[in-house]
Specification:
Layout: H1 2-25, H2 28-38, H3 51-67, E1 70-71, E2 79-89, E3 93-96, E4 99-100, E5 106-110, E6 114-118, E7 124-127, H4 134-141, E8 147-152, H5 157-167, E9 171-173, H6 175-179, E10 185-190, E11 198-218, E12 223-233, E13 238-243, E14 246-249, H7 252-272, E15 277-284, H8 292-299, E16 306-312, E17 325-328, H9 336-343, E18 350-353, H10 368-372, E19 377-381, H11 403-416, H12 418-421
Parallel strand pairs: 7-8, 8-10, 12-15, 12-16, 16-19, 17-18
Antiparallel strand pairs: 1-11, 2-9, 2-11, 3-4, 3-11, 5-10, 6-11, 11-15, 13-14, 17-19
Helix pairs in contact: 1-7, 2-7, 3-7, 7-11
Length: 435
C-alpha cells in the first residue's frame, strides 16, 4: 500500500510540475511576440511568392533554431523547398466575325503557355444560359480537354468582372504539367449574343517559382519511427484591395494564430524531453492558393508512419461553445478527439465535434492530404466561420484577437496530446479516400 501511495504521489507531483512548466513556457509574452510579428505590416500579409512570406519563413526558422529543433531527415535547413510554375495571363488576341474583341470583355481559363485555335479546331461556340448562375456554368465549362469560346450575356457583367480579376492573378501548376502542357483554353466573351467565326491566340507568362514549408523535428526515443505532426499554415492573402486606406491582409487569426500555437508547442515539448515518438512541427505554405505546401509535405512521408496530425487553424476567438473550448474537424472519423478529451479530464477545457459540417472544413485545410491517406489528421479551431466578419479581410489584425483564448487553446492541445506524444495512445485510422 505504501508503494502504491508513493507512486500516486509521484504521479500527482509530475502533473503539478507539468502544469507549472506549461505556464512558464507558453506565456502571454511569448505568444504575443510570435503572433504580433507574424501578423505585422512588415510581413505584408505573407502572400505566396512575395518578399513578405520570405520574411515570415525567416522568422519561423529563427524561432525553431532558438528552441533547438532539428531539420527534417534529408533536409539541411528548416526550409522544405519545392517549385511550382505560375502562368500569368498576357493579352489575348481574339477576333470574332472580323472584329477585334476589347481586352476588358475577355476572360480566359487556360493552363498552357501558348495556344492558337479557331472555329475549325475548337470544340464549339457556347452561349451561357441566363436562367442559371454564372458560377455553376463557369465550373462546368472551365475544365481540361476543351478549346471553346463562351458567349456571356451582359446580365453576368458583375460576375464576369470578379472572375476576371481573380484569374488575372495567374494559375499555379506543377513543373511536369508546364513541360508537357495540354492545349486547352476556354475564352469567355462578355456582351456578344452571336458568333460564327473566330481566331484566338492565348498566351501566359511562365515563371518557375520557389515555395517553402518551414519544418523542424524533435527525434523520438523508443518509438522514433512513429511520427506525430503539429502544423499551421503561415501564408495569407498578401496585399489586397484597399479598405479605408488599409491594403494589408495581416491574417492574424488566419493563420498566424495557428502558426503561433505550433511554434509554442514545439518549445513546450522540447522542454519536456519526454516524447517517445518523433514530433514534427511544420508551417505550411500556399494553403490559401491550393494547399500546395501540405501536399508536398505529405508526399515526403510514408503515411503509415504518421500516428496523428494536429493541424491548428484560427484559434484567435471564442468558439461557438464558449470559453475554454474548441472544435475538431472530422471528429467522428477517428477516436482522436476522444483521446484528447480523456487527457483533459479534470480541466475546464472541452473539445467538440465540428459544428459547421456543411462547410466541409475537414477537407478544406492542410490536414486533408494526410487524412485522405488514412492518417488521423484533424484540424483544431475555435473560429465561428459562419459569422466571422474579419475572415479574409484587411481587418484580421492582432487587435481583433482574444489572446487569452489562444493561450488556453494551445495549453489544452499540449496537455491533451500527451498520451499520443509519449506513445501510449494511437488514434484509430481514418478510412482512405478512393483515388
Amino acid at each position: 500500500m505504501k508503494k502504491i501511495f508513493l507512486v500516486a504521489l509521484a504521479g500527482m507531483a509530475t502533473l503539478q510540475l507539468s502544469a507549472q512548466n506549461i505556464d512558464k513556457i507558453i506565456t502571454r509574452e511569448y505568444t504575443d511576440h510570435l503572433i504580433k510579428t507574424l501578423s505585422s505590416d512588415a510581413m505584408e500579409g505573407r502572400g505566396t511568392f512575395t518578399p513578405g512570406i520570405d520574411k515570415a519563413a525567416t522568422f519561423i526558422e529563427s524561432e525553431f533554431k532558438k528552441i533547438g529543433l532539428k531539420p527534417l531527415n534529408g533536409e539541411s535547413t528548416f526550409r522544405q523547398t519545392f517549385y511550382k510554375v505560375r502562368l500569368t495571363p498576357e493579352p489575348t488576341k481574339l477576333v470574332i466575325d472580323g472584329k477585334t474583341v476589347p481586352q476588358e470583355n475577355i476572360l480566359v481559363w487556360a493552363k498552357s503557355p501558348s495556344i492558337l485555335f479557331d472555329q475549325t479546331s475548337a470544340d464549339g461556340i457556347i452561349k451561357l444560359d441566363t436562367t442559371k448562375t454564372f458560377a455553376a456554368q463557369y465550373r462546368s465549362l472551365s475544365r481540361p480537354g476543351k478549346k471553346q469560346v463562351v458567349l456571356v450575356d451582359a446580365k453576368f457583367a458583375a460576375d464576369f468582372k470578379r472572375y476576371k480579376s481573380f484569374l488575372n492573378r495567374g494559375a499555379i501548376i506543377d513543373e511536369k504539367d508546364a513541360q508537357s502542357p495540354t492545349p486547352d483554353a476556354t475564352i469567355f466573351v462578355l456582351g456578344l449574343s452571336e458568333a460564327k467565326e473566330f481566331s484566338a491566340e492565348v498566351k501566359n507568362k511562365v515563371e518557375k517559382l520557389p515555395l517553402f514549408n518551414v519544418a523542424g523535428m524533435i527525434p523520438g526515443k523508443s518509438k522514433e519511427k512513429e511520427l506525430v505532426v503539429f502544423s499551421g499554415h503561415y501564408d495569407h492573402l498578401g496585399i489586397t484591395k484597399p479598405v479605408d486606406g488599409d491594403s494589408i491582409g495581416n491574417g492574424a487569426d488566419d493563420d498566424a494564430s495557428g502558426t503561433t500555437a505550433m511554434i509554442a508547442l514545439a518549445k513546450y515539448y522540447k522542454a519536456q524531453k519526454n516524447n517517445e515518438r518523433t514530433l514534427i512541427f511544420v508551417a505550411f505554405t500556399a494553403e490559401e492558393i491550393g494547399g500546395f505546401g501540405a501536399r508536398y509535405f505529405s508526399e515526403k512521408l510514408n503515411p503509415d508512419d504518421v500516428v496523428a496530425m494536429f493541424n491548428i487553424e484560427m484559434i484567435g476567438k471564442d468558439s461557438k461553445f464558449g470559453k475554454n473550448s474548441a472544435f475538431i474537424t472530422g471528429y467522428d472519423k477517428s477516436d482522436f478527439g476522444k483521446i484528447l478529451q480523456k487527457n483533459l479530464a479534470g480541466t475546464e477545457f472541452t473539445f467538440h465535434p465540428d459544428p459547421y459540417k456543411e462547410q466541409n472544413l475537414f477537407y478544406r485545410s492542410d490536414n486533408a492530404t494526410l487524412a485522405a491517406l488514412g492518417v488521423p489528421a484533424h484540424t483544431i479551431s475555435t473560429d465561428q466561420i459562419d459569422i466571422d466578419k474579419f475572415y479574409h479581410t484587411v481587418k484580421d489584425e492582432y487587435s481583433t484577437l482574444d489572446v487569452e483564448n489562444i493561450l488556453s487553446t494551445i495549453k489544452a492541445i499540449a496537455k491533451s496530446a500527451t498520451s499520443i506524444v509519449n506513445g501510449t495512445d494511437a488514434p484509430t485510422r481514418i478510412p482512405k479516400l478512393k483515388q
